[in-house]
Amino acid sequence: NTSERKKTFSLWFKRSTLGVYQSLFDSTVSGNIEGGVEITNEDRIQVTDRDATDGTGDIFLPTSMLFRDTSAWYHLVVAYDTTQGTDTNRVKVYVNGSQITSFTSTTYPPQNYDIQDFRSSVANYIGANVSSSYYDGYISEFYFIDGQQLAPTDFGETNDNGVWIPKEYEGTYGNSGFFLEFQQTGTSANSSGMGADTSGNDNHFAATNLAATDVTTDTPQNNFATWNPIAKNPNLPLAEGNTYAENTGTDSFRSALGTIGVSSGKWYWEFRGGPTGDAQKFIVGWTKADVDYNARIFADSNPTVASDGYGYRSDGNKVNNNSASSYGASWNSNTIVGIKLDLDNGTIGFIHGSDRGNAYTGLTTGIFYLPFCALAQASNGEDATSFVNFGNGAHSDFGTNTDANGYGGFTYSVPSGYYALNTKNLAEYG
C-alpha cells in the first residue's frame, strides 16, 4: 500500500433489509485483526478497526443517526489520517456530504496507527466480511483511495435542486486504490467481471454468489422504485433488492407497496407470478397513497376491497371497493402482467398477453398513487412467489423492451407515452 495511515473510502448504497447486522466492506488480516464498516441491527453505520489479538477495538464509531430509508441512495465517505495530532481528525465519516459528529460511542485510534482496512495481500470484502454478514441492497461507485484523506466534495456535489449527487473523481488512487463501477457482468477478478477496477490499477475483485442479473441500472444517478419493506405485510418476505416477494405462510393475501408514488403522467411496470404447478393467487395494480395500511396492507386480507385500491386479480377479475367484476383472463403459472397508470386521463389498464384496455376510468387525478402487489399461497400450501420489474432492466430479467427513454427490460412493448418508475423519468414527466 501507499500508506497504512491515510486512506479514503467512498461508496453509494441503497438498503433493502432493515434491522439486520450487515457488512458494507471489511478486511481481515488474521484472527481479531480486522477493519471495516458495518450497518448494525439498530440501523447505525459503524466504523471499526482493531489490531490486537485480544480483540480490543482501536476504532469504534457507531453513529447516533439511524439509516432506515430504503427508497433512497446514501453516499458514505470514511476518511482516515492517523498522523493527525487531534484524534477526531484521524477518522472522519460523512453521509450525503455532511460530516457525522454524533456517535453512541467514540474510540479514535492512537496517533500513527496503521489502519487494517484494505491492505494488499489480505482478504478484502465488499458487501460481506469473513463471517459472511452479507449486505442486502445496492452498492454503486465504490472508490478506495490509498494514501490520502479526502473530503466528500472529491466524489459528490450539490445540484441546483439542493440534492447531493455523484461526480467524477479526478485525483490519484495510490498503489492499492481502485474504482468499482459494477458495469460488467462476469464473476472473475478481471476487467470483464462485475468487480472490475477501472482506476487503471487493475485491482479487480472476484464475485461470489452473484449472477449477471444482479447488476442493475438502479443507481444514485437514476433511482428506481422497489417494494417498500416498511410499507408491507410484516410476514411477506422480500429479497433480490426488494424486487422479489414471497408469501410462505397463508392462502390469504399479503401485500406490499412501492417506494415511488406519482401524481401526474403515464407510468408502466411489470409483474411475474409463479411458480408452476398450483393455484397461487395474485393481485397487482395501483392504490391511492393514503390507503388504510393497517386494514388493507399489513393485515392478511385483500387490499383492493377498499375503494383506495384498483387491482387485477389472477382469476381474471378486476377488484375494487368490495366488489369483483370480469375484466381479463385468468393467469397461468409464471405469467407476466403489465400495469399501466394514466394520470393525465384518470385510467388504469393491464397487459396480459395483449392489451386488455382500461380496467378503471374516472380516477381522481392530482393525488399520489403507489404500485402494489398482493400474494396468497395455493390452497395446498405451495408458496406464492413473484418478481417485479419497475424498469431497472437486467435485475429482474423480463425482456428487452424499453420506454422511450431507454429504461425497462420489459416483456411487453411499453405503450406510447408511458414510462418506467425512476427519478429521471419523474423529473421529466411526473
List the helices and strands and how they pair.
Layout: E1 6-15, E2 22-30, E3 33-39, E4 45-50, E5 59-62, E6 74-81, E7 91-95, E8 98-100, E9 123-126, E10 137-146, E11 156-158, E12 164-166, E13 178-180, E14 227-232, E15 238-239, E16 244-247, E17 254-258, E18 266-274, E19 281-288, H1 293-297, E20 309-313, E21 317-320, E22 323-326, E23 336-342, E24 347-352, E25 354-360, E26 369-376, E27 384-389, E28 401-402, E29 408-410, H2 423-429
Antiparallel strand pairs: 1-6, 1-10, 2-3, 2-9, 3-4, 4-5, 6-7, 7-8, 10-13, 11-12, 14-17, 15-16, 16-27, 17-26, 18-23, 18-27, 19-20, 19-26, 20-21, 21-22, 23-24, 24-25, 28-29
Describe this protein's structure:
It is a single chain. With 430 residues, the protein is an all-beta fold. It contains 2 helices and 29 strands. β15 and β16 (244-247) form a beta hairpin. It is elongated, with a radius of gyration of 23 Å. The chain has helices at 293-297, 423-429, and strands at 6-15, 22-30, 33-39, 45-50, 59-62, 74-81, 91-95, 98-100, 123-126, 137-146, 156-158, 164-166, 178-180, 227-232, 238-239, 244-247, 254-258, 266-274, 281-288, 309-313, 317-320, 323-326, 336-342, 347-352, 354-360, 369-376, 384-389, 401-402, 408-410.
